[in-house]
Backbone:
């Protein structure tokens, strides 16, 4: 590698960091809260680090912490994680067009850091043009490092918060309510949410363990999709 | 949960998270996902969040029975209002926690 190439690569890392810092800043309070709640659910620092490193998916980590606190079975936690993160299929296949002829080694590494936030940023920059894939990779890893450090610090912070202090038991529910509201991007989303709530309560009373989450959400998404498609067809026909 | 079980759980969670991120990229499939599948995937997060919250708000845990008078439900209403009005994650969590805490003192 000659010096000019090396210099250029330094530039792309810098560009990546310059683009990533707002995401990193946004991750800090969320990562700290996750750490605090994980500590309340009984996780110790190395366990938090292992989770953030191996999973690196904020929403599903909050859900996993809630399920661990509720003593859910491993199968229930794994299948819920799978469902929550399945949407990355969409992002990954949308991203693929920007990597023609790129080595598999790069892509397997890049895929690890594909989150909602890094996807939104990298996609925008790729579409604007002139965005190096190494800058994109830098974004992924800078946000990942922030996430891992933030969540572990949160666990230490959690040790200072007494159990039950100022309604901390409600924090996860409050968080999920807000994330749910963010997801309501149209009537079909609201209808799906209502169906999911009703199915979930029925399944909670009838099915053992935590399988109600997976059963109710698959059922509700399927009914929501059928409703959307039939309504759309009717409107097109009219 | 033992350390070994925990680590196994994390590896499994990591695998099911990583594979959907990796497979379309590495296969470099230019083919888009079928539209019905993409639309179904878009509905999954909202369905999971709702399914996860509902029993916390509307059911007792032991035994599992439906109820409309839980402190969680009362605290959820101002939190929901705050989320819709402000769209602030931190604000919603704080409002919900304070209401839940206040209700606990009252009851």
Residues:
């Amino acid at each position: 590698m000659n010096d000019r190439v090396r210099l250029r690569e330094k530039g792309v890392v810098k560009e990546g960091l310059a683009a990533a810092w707002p995401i990193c800043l946004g991750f800090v309070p969320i990562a700290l809260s996750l750490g605090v709640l994980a500590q309340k659910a009984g996780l110790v620092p190395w366990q938090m680090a292992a989770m953030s490193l191996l999973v690196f998916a904020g929403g599903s980590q909050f859900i996993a912490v809630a399920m661990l606190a509720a003593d859910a079975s491993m199968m229930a936690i794994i299948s819920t994680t799978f469902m929550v993160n399945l949407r990355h299929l969409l992002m990954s296949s949308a991203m693929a067009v920007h990597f023609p002829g790129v080595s598999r080694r790069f892509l397997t590494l890049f895929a690890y850091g594909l989150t909602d936030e890094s996807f939104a940023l990298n996609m925008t920059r790729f579409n604007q043009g002139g965005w190096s894939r190494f800058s994109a990779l830098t974004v992924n890893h800078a946000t990942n490092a922030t996430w891992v450090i933030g969540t572990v610090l949160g666990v230490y912070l959690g040790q200072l918060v007494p159990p039950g202090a100022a309604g901390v038991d409600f924090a996860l529910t409050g968080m999920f309510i807000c994330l749910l509201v963010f997801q309501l991007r149209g009537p079909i989303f609201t209808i799906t949410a209502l169906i999911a709530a009703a199915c979930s309560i029925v399944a909670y009373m009838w099915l053992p363990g935590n399988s109600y989450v997976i059963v109710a959400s698959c059922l509700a998404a399927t009914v929501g999709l059928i409703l959307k498609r039939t309504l759309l067809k009717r409107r097109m026909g009219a | 949960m033992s350390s070994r079980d925990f680590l196994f759980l994390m590896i499994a969670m990591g695998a099911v998270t990583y594979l959907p991120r990796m497979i379309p990229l590495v296969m470099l499939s230019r083919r888009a996902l079928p539209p019905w599948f993409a639309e179904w995937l878009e509905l999954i997060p909202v369905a999971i969040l709702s399914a996860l919250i509902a029993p916390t708000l509307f059911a007792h845990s032991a035994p599992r029975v439906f109820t409309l008078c839980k402190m969680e439900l009362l605290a959820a209403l101002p939190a929901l209002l705050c989320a819709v009005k402000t769209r602030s994650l931190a604000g919603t969590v704080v409002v919900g926690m304070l209401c839940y805490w206040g209700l606990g003192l009252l009851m």
